[in-house]
Amino acid sequence: MEFKIKHKDKNTKARLCEIKTAHSSFETPIFMPVGTAAAVKALDSVDMNEILKAKIILANTYHCYLRPGSKIIKALGGLHGFTKFPHSFLTDSGGFQAFSLSKNTKHFEEGIKFKSHIDGSSHLFTPKSVLDTQYDLNSDIMMILDDLVALPASKKRIDLSVQRTIKWAKESINYHKLKQNEGIGLDQNIFGIVQGGTDFEARKLCAEALCELDFDGLAIGGLSVGEENTAMYDTVEAVMAFMNENRPRYLMGVGTPEDLVENVQRGVDMFDCVMPTRNARNGTLFTSFGKFNIKKAEFISENEPIEKACECYTCKHYSRSYLNHLFRAKELSFFRLASLHNLHFYLNLMAQIRKAIKEDKFSEFKKEFYAKRGVYA
Predict the structure, then answer these.
(1) Of these residues, 147, 216, 259, 272, which one is catalytic?
(2) Rounded to an integer, what distance in angstroms lies between the CA atom of residue 303 and that of residue 62?
(3) Which of 92, 140, 147, 199 is the catalytic position?
(4) What confidence tens digit (pLDDT) does each residue in 17-71 have?
(5) The model scores a pTM over 0.90
(6) 132 flagged as catalytic
């Protein structure tokens, strides 16, 4: 991976960077659409590449491991050959899904034991096994296994999470170096994950320990899991002081458009979240003036696009009336058209943010962003 800081906003901690992997080059701050089971729901590789022009998407190790299995994906050319998406993939470790989808998940010193949400079969994720799965997937960026904690949590549990996360991080980086010496994963990059809940001292301890290791990038995990937004923002603000600025900074599983703007201001480079596609399937559409639900009766005969200024495929071709009809009629095409719009909104938001940083106008951009929503930050 090549990582370069291209510009720092003069008035905030926002920064414009460039990342090059074996499959694509892209500027940050960036939003990564979530392709949980090697597919962004309702969309295919043509939608992602030619219509949305995404340069990196996220796939989930847990789901690909369980179905169809990493060996099958490897035999068919890794994620790129399997999905036909030609650009970069980031794969998370699967630890969050093992934690959230199984009622019988147990954390041990060696890893995470869980039962499949598909058939109830028992499995064990270890720092080495999740990397082995990701070597099969041939993702450009691999996330290590970490010990995630739901919030609120006791200090004892947070401290244990940090200890395990540091331990597993050391095991992961050592194993990755060993595999690369064997010629495996040479074009793959590895990111560490900083845990610690909303405990600033725990975050500092974890961040400093991981910064001493040879990770290609660092992520902030364990947020947007039940805490207030202000607690998330304050935690990101605090931990940034202890994260090496010469590596990409990734805030996992976040979030709303407001969350993206706020955390870019605090120095975050990379984001992912299921929100744009999940909300799309439920009829909620994002716009510069806020979000609304297309199923409402007021849109039945409205011959306007979702947003007049929007340049997405859906807004160029279809009216609110038609989308309202598709949703009410339970037509599957609604999922695609709504998802294309919402992901375009997110990707375009990040493009606007990058432009503002480049011109040292991020503060002005933020004020305008909130003003359009009728909010004054």
Answers:
(1) 272
(2) 43
(3) 92
(4) 999 999 999 999 999 999 999 999 999 999 999 999 999 999 999 999 999 999 9
(5) yes
(6) no
